[in-house]
Batch of 2 targets.
Target 1
Amino acid sequence: MIILKPLRPLILLAALAVGVPLAAGFFNALHPALDSFAHFRAHLAVLLGIAALALLAVRLWAFGATALVAAALTLATTSGSLPAIGMRYGALHPADPERPVYRLLQFNLRYNNPEPAQVLSLIGREQPDVLTLDEVTAAWREKLRLIEATYRYSLFCPYPNGLFGVAILSRRPFVEGSEPFCDGRGALGIAAVNFGGQTVDVAALHLGWPWPFPQYWEVGGLWPSFGRLGPTAILAGDLNATPWSRTPARVAEAGGLTLMQSPGPTWLSRHLPKALFFAGLPIDNVFAKGDVEMHSIRTLEPTGSDHLPVLVEFSLRSSPADPGTDVAALPGADPG
């Protein structure tokens, strides 16, 4: 104990250094700079918990207990386990055997992904009904031609720099007479898809980095475009923002959408080993509204990108049985 006593001021300073940005993130509605702290809320909470244990070890009981409770409550705000003080996510429901189950795959392909064959193989195995893709370059568009016989209905929204465009690919037809929409900067694409006779607006979104980068202003510029979404819609994309940050809340407000709970970390820097993916950031988000009933949202294995693919399974509440909309399938696959 005598050895540890001189460390008390250093441990207190360390706890303070973690606690200040952690607290700042809770005021993210005041300025986008504070929202940049919010993205790392879970990581800062873990660090605060470690600092709390260190405070208890040097018998600073009051400081240690306070920090430990603060860390636990902070983690609860990110998980949705205490909706009264944290996030409120859309509910997941068990599938109804009387209704068809559809699948959407959200994936930031990574503009320079060295393993495109693995991506196409994953798509072939999972057979999603619709794909929402980010960082779709001209090179990726050429690769995706290999599956265009299956995904016959497509919308490509190129980004001005040629790297960060979005795309929607579908085995199910776009609604006849509808006009797919691109926002002009390749950040947002919307297509009305016919799921067994029922229209669902599917949107792919890719936002830039948080403050000091222009993410906050980008959402503001897209605000009217989110209003294009019809009464039943799914939006999925790489928001470069965690679910508990301000950005997803603004997207949900603009589109009248409900944010679904993240399946866990979906991004990790390529400079870190994949074994650390558990410590990554959950920045690929899924939203829904109207007759969409979500069943599951989960990540799949890595395929060359710094993002994990996210597979979404859902049904439509007012859909009895799928009357057999024209659907393409890969050879030997069940069209579903």
Target 2
Amino acid sequence: MTPAVTDERTTLSAPTNRFGQPIGRPLADWSARAYPQRVTLHGRYCRLEPLQPDRHASALYGAYAKAPDDRDWTYLAVGPFDDEISYRRHAESAAASTDPLHFAVINLASGLAVGTLALMRIDPTNGVIEVGSVAFSPELQRTPASTEAQYLLMKYVFDTLGYRRYEWKCDNLNAPSRKAAVRLGFRYEGTFRQAVVYKERSRDTAWFSIIDSEWSALAAAFDAWLSPQNFDAQCAQRLCLTAIRAQQAATRRAGAPVTVRPLAASRTV
């Protein structure tokens, strides 16, 4: 995976100061952005609610307990949890935090909480924020709701709050997380060596990001992928998210309106 780099063409096209040095593009109208709030975000398949232990902890623990083993907790800073009481203590601590700011993912079909994720490393001054602490239960993994949960949070950050940069970081050895980041449209930027110590081991951290200039195209792809027409009766996708992005990008390059032509159903979500 090749990191995003600033190449010679970018340097040559940059504005210069009075000394002839290349500098970043001016942002004269920039101002600090608002801090994210404990809002409820509504989607077609799921809803994001501020984490509330009294409402969510029991359902979340039950959903996580359906996993056949504890591998989903390997690369998270917390867990696994021995019982519902210990998970509830964690949920109470998480719910009291404002950074990270935790949300529960509610499955609209069941009305139950099936996972959590958070906004963290919140930097309103520079318009930078990270999504992390993603703990999706087996009931949420590889479903349309899991993608929509990520999309709803991105949309809140870019469209409502007006942030410039949205980050994803993970253990460099966490291949599923790296793959998920790329699928969602994040660009790999590099790996910070020995960046974190957690669970009595060292972590090299892989960095990914989406910036505001990329958001419009990514949002169009999410909207197309999440459309009911993109799924068959068994909820199998007809066209994968990366294929939709590629198709829409080709259409834009050709100067034509963006349309989506579904392919044969695939069960990989």
